[in-house]
Design goal:
The protein is of the alpha+beta class and 236 residues long. The chain has two domains: 1-152, Heat Shock Protein 90 (2-Layer Sandwich), CATH 3.30.565.40; 154-236, Alpha-Beta Complex (Actin, Chain A, domain 4). The protein has five helices and nine strands. It has helices spanning 2-17, 25-38, 79-98, 164-178, 227-230, and strands at 51-60, 64-74, 104-115, 119-130, 135-146, 151-152, 197-200, 203-208, 221-226. The protein has a six-stranded mixed beta sheet, sandwiched between helices. Strands 7-8-9 form a three-stranded antiparallel beta sheet. Strand 7 and strand 8 (203-208) form a beta hairpin. It is flat.
Length: 236
């Protein structure tokens, strides 16, 4: 039964993640025409019509199993940036594989949280089970790309260059925690070093793995903050 529920969740994430992965031919023409109208040199501008293709890999052995779907970026104008992004994604995939051990089954999928010309935010869902099918844990992972140069956006990169953003974020997060319908396992400590997050169209989501603040019945703690709430501390 748990395996069936998991598969349904995987299908759901895939359907959401695949929306608008490839712009229509008409949209591509519109994008190209807009570039010409603005007088932007093609060599210095990323082609918005890049493709996000889903790649599948599996390790199916008697005592361990892994099935993973991960994104591959194609048809970017700047091939160096494309290769760099795909390398970083593949590096993450290989790190997931290292967590696989005897008696464990892992199922990993991804969602496209933000897909724009200049940035891309990807969320990974990692579900782990014991050999007998009993639940072990769910984890979230994310990677946020600056598509202008192929680098990864850390949380700090989103804000003006001072420490005020941490205080602001902690205040907003504490307010949201007070509105939760369940208590945390321990007192909230705020933003961590190397804080995990992913972007959304109108904001960002800070997350903490289950077991830190929430039990497995609830899953990872995800707290959404709108860009409007962050205001002047965001980089322009």
């Amino acid at each position: 039964m748990k395996r069936i529920v998991h598969l349904l969740l995987v299908v759901s994430v895939l359907l959401v993640g695949c929306v608008d992965v490839m712009p229509t031919e008409e949209k591509q023409v519109e994008i190209q025409n807009k570039k010409v109208d603005q007088g932007i040199k093609e060599d210095n501008k990323i082609n918005k019509a890049y493709i996000i293709r889903s790649e599948y890999e599996a390790i199916l052995e008697k005592n361990m199993q892994l099935e993973i779907q991960y994104p591959v970026i194609e048809k970017m104008k700047n091939k160096n940036i494309e290769e760099k992004i795909n390398y970083l994604i593949k590096e993450k995939v290989e790190n997931y594989k290292k967590k696989l051990s005897t008696g464990i089954s892992m199922y990993i999928d991804f969602g496209i949280m933000v897909r724009k010309e200049e940035r891309l935010s990807l969320k990974f869902i990692i579900s782990t089970y014991k050999k007998d099918g009993s639940y072990l844990r769910n984890e979230i992972d994310a990677i946020n790309f600056n598509l202008e140069n192929g680098t990864i956006y850390t949380l700090k990169d989103l804000f003006e260059e001072n420490e005020a953003y941490i205080e602001k974020l902690n205040t907003l997060l504490s307010q949201k925690i007070k509105k939760l319908e369940y208590p945390l396992l321990v007192k909230f400590k705020g933003i961590e070093d190397h804080q995990g997050y992913y972007l959304k169209e109108e904001g960002l989501v800070v997350y903490y793995q289950e077991g830190i603040y929430t039990p497995y019945q609830i899953g990872p703690l995800e707290l959404e903050i709108s860009f409007a709430e962050l205001g002047e501390i965001l980089k322009k």
